## 1
Amino acid sequence: MDLRSLRFLVLWPHKDKMEDCILDADFLPSTRHFAAFDNENNVLACCTLMPESRIVEGQVYSMRLRAMASHPDVRGSGMARELLSFALGHFLGEKFWCDARLIAVPFYERCGWRVRSEAYEIPIIGTHFLMTS
Ligand SMILES: CC(C)(COP(=O)(O)OP(=O)(O)OC[C@H]1O[C@@H](n2cnc3c(N)ncnc32)[C@H](O)[C@@H]1OP(=O)(O)O)[C@@H](O)C(=O)NCCC(=O)NCCS
């Protein structure tokens, strides 16, 4: 399982094929992808960080988190949280934000993030909240 396959499986199963599971910013030099692998190089958890600023209550959050996912087989193991912590550790001094799916809000809260908006809808995907680190 590679990064696109995991994205297809758990984030965007409505797309036609895994080749469609890429973001415009995926190949920018400033974008960073992080993944946790098993011994056979299958991706078990992944996330992507990119520079994109968002101002929340006067504070600049300069990095955007996208495509946070873990394989169903490892859910609840703490691997996703560890990967996120590892990824954020590469950007010391930065602040982070994301569009958090309703279903993922408790995960981000367990990682110390905070809900910073009312609920809003993103077509096809559903209800989201702005969250910050
Ligand atoms: C969101 C997601 C990455 C969380 O992965 P995970 O494997 O459950 O995360 P972890 O095992 O690292 O969990 C860390 C903590 O969050 C908690 N947690 C995770 N999801 C939770 C939920 N839905 N409700 C309550 N607690 C939750 C875990 O129990 C764990 O708690 P602990 O501190 O008591 O150990 C995963 O559920 C996923 O891939 N979901 C589908 C894709 C998705 O929605 N991604 C987010 C896009 S914004």
Note: The first helix runs from residue 3 to 11.
## 2
Amino acid sequence: MMIRQEIAPCQSPEPIVYAMQPKSDSITRRLTSPTDPITHAGEIALRYTLGETQTPVAAYQLPNELESQLDLTICKEGESTDQVMRALEELANATPRSTSTRFCNQLFSGSDPIATAADMLVPVINTSLYTFKAAGPMAMIERIIIAKMAGLLGFNGSPNKPEGIFTPGGSISNLVAMLIARNETCPTLRNEGSQGKRIICYASADAHYSIIKNAGILGMGRQNVRQIPTDNTGAMNLSILHQTVHDDLDAGHLPSMIIATAGTTVRGAFDSIDQIIPIAREFGVWVHVDACFGGAASLSPTHRHLLNGVELADSVAWNPHKVMGVPLSAATLITRKSGYLSKNFDETADYLFQGDDDALNPGTRSIQCGRRNDALKVWAAWKHHGDIGYRDRIDHLMSIAQYAASGIKAHDALILSCKPTYVNVCFEVVGKSSRAICDLLRERNELLVGHAEVDGRRVIRIPFVNGAITTDDADEMLELILNAAQTLPAGDNAITSAPNC
Ligand SMILES: Cc1ncc(COP(=O)(O)O)c(C=O)c1O
């Protein structure tokens, strides 16, 4: 219901007439020239997209084969536009096609034409999202998307308004959140250091690897991330979490942050945020939700419950480049209350920040100085699909995952590794190695799919994140997997039988 209420009536503003017209002669000449690289790039993009029907997965080639086949060298003498454009097209065609429905190796897949078109304009406009002076209305676009996402997370009820920032990726969103949490729970840290205290972070054993990496980057110590075991759904075990925080306090350490994952990378599990919040409040620690993957569940009233409690979290990371299907990178970090970003990232630079309301100077809140405009594609896609389009996308992908899981459960040769809570489906083929199956499918150019560990077993993981995927595609994928498995010998440590969950 919340989503419907937010739909604002569309208005058509008066077109803006600019006082200064560009000197157009040279630009017109460039754009109408048959060798114009921008026009050429559009044609390559079109051919590349149409080529997907013939080659859904780029031909598998070893690095040395690619090197000898492609024109990758940079010479002393420059080459003509045509030569470079030809080399670019060959390079594109040899790259694994992440836009295809046969790419289910990562948590991004597919191609949203509107978002892609908007993103193609980004380098043409070539602004930097740090000041209103440089970015003009693009700084407003970023704010609009952040406000929309904050609303879906339930942050708008906060008396102290939420705020947020686009980052170069989800790992960096988590880094920003961990830095804020560390500084908030250890106020002496930024200037005097931690004064001998060990700053502790808690995350599930299934949390994304960026959490441990970030603890190293932030000087907290990788070993000070407590990897809390998960239950059989892949969610953090909360009684172990509670006990561990308690024990750390007793040991004189400084519990600093609990990182809940909403949509774990492999199983797609959701930690129970609403039960984590009271534990965090009891011990006075920050709650960050890594919803890079699962934030999109908030787009569907049917699945919003997976994120229950997120409205009380201190910060959330959410990547539109995953389940919302916009091109990489589109990643955000949103805090429930404002002020934390500028407190930790603002610095004096009078050569850059020259007036205007800091609300429209995102550089005062970002880890970077120059910043690519990643908000534009999200804005264009959302404007095109609307809230309803995104709701339908999530509902569709969730239903495809359930459909595939039922197919796996019903098949004698397949074993479902865990009941899917989100869009990921993990399973094994009886008697066969998951790794060998994935490798063979890649070599055959049939399907790019990954393997991962679930409860100590190597399983095949299909994330259904490509909005174009149908039940027929899901059937075809399982068929390809079974066909490949049939040609393989019995695998070492392969599953023979197990209760299908
Ligand atoms: C749960 C989770 N968090 C964070 C990330 C990192 O996001 P990015 O690849 O944008 O750095 C991922 C990536 O898959 C993820 O699954």
Note: The longest strand covers residues 254-261.
